[in-house]
Specification:
single chain; mainly alpha; Four Helix Bundle (Hemerythrin (Met), subunit A); 5 helices; elongated
């Protein structure tokens, strides 16, 4: 099956959207452990187990990284970027952000930092490819 670069870019945005909320499954488990009070959802943050606190931070950081990636992927889509490098950047971003959350929750700082870097480079790559596509040869 041959999937176009444009399809991969759009699918990667959908996957990146889902990845924003995956850490919240871990937070929900942590809340269940401490006796979650739905009337004050943020009041018990300090009582959460450390892994659930890190999951909250992973969620927040993923939420912050998403608009940059979405803009880069949509820019590549809109400018008609058609390269294997763009495919690698799109797939690289989604895989890196998945492992970013895993490493953050597991408290593996070097892995988390590496995944953050890969995700950032992936977004930057799509921006550059888009600008190069617009530049006269």
């Amino acid at each position: 099956m041959n999937i176009s670069v444009n399809a991969i870019l759009l699918y990667s945005i959908v996957v990146a959207t889902v990845l924003i909320y995956l850490p919240f499954l871990v937070v929900a488990y942590g809340r269940f452990q401490i006796g979650y009070d739905p009337s004050a959802p943020r009041a018990n943050f300090e009582k959460l187990p450390p892994y659930a606190q890190r999951a909250t931070w992973a969620h927040q950081n993923t939420l912050e990284a998403f608009p940059i990636y979405a803009a880069a992927a949509l820019m590549a889509y809109g400018t008609g970027v058609d390269s294997t490098l763009a495919v690698g950047a799109a797939i690289g971003f989604t895989i890196a952000r998945l492992f970013y959350s895993v490493f953050y929750i597991a408290n593996i700082a070097i892995g988390r930092s590496l995944m953050f870097g890969i995700g950032s480079v992936s977004s930057f790559t799509l921006f550059v490819l888009s600008l190069l596509t617009l530049s006269p040869s």
